[in-house]
């Protein structure tokens, strides 16, 4: 038979400092001491078994997604604005370039639409040499649509034209474009036999080699000079400041102080070197 366990007595031994006459009774075990704060009961926080404690909450994710969406929309809007700005700049540049190109074209073009399809009055289609042929120069200038020669002049420029046929230099005569009998002078003309072409016009515009030969009344086409036409190795060639050009010779500009050389014949018959300079300081007004 098991022995009963004896209950311990709740007697405590009072303690007092040495020399005290009265014993102070200790409070029962577990009771709070006088003046000491009663500890509050510790409460374990409730656990939400439905929440995912391993990552951000659904609300946090929603906010992040909304923020990212707003950022994406701002970036897309910025790109649209940048594209629109680039397009406006491109349209402006293209438009400005077109206006400038049209202006330059209208100012400097050789008007092929005014190029007569029929021979000009008194046009020479014979072989060199050619005279001034000035009797019908005014009529030819009118057909070509050339501006007049009157003061004050809007432009006064000079170009030098030289012609070689089978290697032989050909003289460009005095008074091309000047009819002394009528006292008429055209905006493109000559005063001497040096090949200097005087451009004296009441209107500033681009003049061409084809217009000079038109006023002179000597046929000039891509393949013919007067009565000299391409045949076998005999070819018409045109040089500007020593460089050969492949465009229609009638469209070669009569720019100020340029040297234009026309040759007809074989390559072996061409002058060597091709003339490319001229003393324009020797020109008399």
How would you characterize this protein structure?
24% of the residues lie in helices and 16% in strands. Helix 2 (137-144) packs antiparallel against helix 3 (209-216). Mean pLDDT is 82; it is low at 14-24, 34-40 and 104-111. The chain has helices spanning 58-108, 137-144, 209-216, and strands spanning 155-165, 168-170, 178-179, 184-185, 188-189, 196-201, 224-225, 228-229, 235-240, 243-245, 259-265. The protein is built from three helices and eleven strands; from the N terminus they run ααββββββαβββββ. The protein is elongated and about 105 Å long. Strands 1, 2, 5, 6, 9, 10 and 11 form a seven-stranded mixed sheet that branches. The protein has a two-stranded antiparallel sheet with strand order 3-4. Strands 7-8 form a two-stranded antiparallel ribbon.
Provide a compact summary of the structure:
The protein is an alpha+beta fold and 285 residues long.
Q: Count the helices. How many?
A: 3
The largest sheet, given as strand count, sense and whether it forms a barrel, is: 7 strands, mixed
Q: Helical percent range?
A: 10-25%
Distance between the termini: 157 Å
Q: Which consecutive residue ranges, at least 5 long each, have pLDDT under 50?
A: 14-24, 34-40, 104-111
- Label the structural class: alpha+beta
Q: Specify Rg, calculated over alpha carbons.
A: 54 Å
Count of strand segments = 11
Strand content: 15-25%
Mean pLDDT: 82
Order of helices and strands: HHEEEEEEHEEEEE
- Outline: elongated
């Amino acid at each position: 038979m098991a022995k009963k366990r004896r209950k311990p007595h709740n007697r405590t031994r009072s303690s007092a400092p040495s020399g005290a006459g009265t014993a102070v009774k200790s409070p029962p075990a577990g009771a709070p001491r006088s003046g000491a704060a009663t500890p509050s009961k510790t409460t374990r926080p409730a656990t939400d078994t439905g929440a995912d404690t391993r990552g951000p909450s659904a609300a946090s994710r929603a906010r992040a997604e909304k923020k990212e969406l707003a950022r994406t929309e701002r970036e897309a809007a910025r790109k649209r604005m940048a594209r629109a700005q680039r397009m406006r700049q491109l349209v402006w540049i293209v438009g400005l370039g077109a206006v400038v190109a049209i202006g330059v074209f209208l100012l400097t073009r050789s008007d092929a639409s005014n190029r007569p399809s029929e021979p000009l009055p008194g046009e020479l289609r014979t072989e060199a040499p050619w005279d001034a042929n000035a009797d019908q120069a005014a009529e030819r200038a009118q057909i070509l649509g050339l501006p007049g020669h009157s003061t004050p002049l809007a432009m006064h420029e000079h170009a030098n034209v030289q012609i070689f046929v089978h290697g032989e230099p050909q003289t460009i005569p005095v008074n091309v474009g000047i009819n002394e009998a009528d006292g008429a002078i055209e905006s493109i003309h000559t005063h001497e036999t040096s090949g200097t072409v005087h451009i004296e016009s009441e209107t500033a515009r681009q003049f061409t080699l084809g217009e000079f030969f038109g006023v002179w009344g000597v046929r000039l086409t891509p393949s013919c000079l007067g009565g000299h036409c391409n045949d076998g190795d005999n070819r018409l060639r045109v040089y500007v400041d020593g460089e050969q050009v492949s465009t229609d010779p009638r469209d070669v500009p009569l720019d100020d102080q340029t040297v234009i050389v026309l040759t007809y014949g074989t390559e072996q018959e061409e002058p060597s070197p091709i003339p490319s300079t001229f003393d324009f300081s020797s020109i008399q007004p």
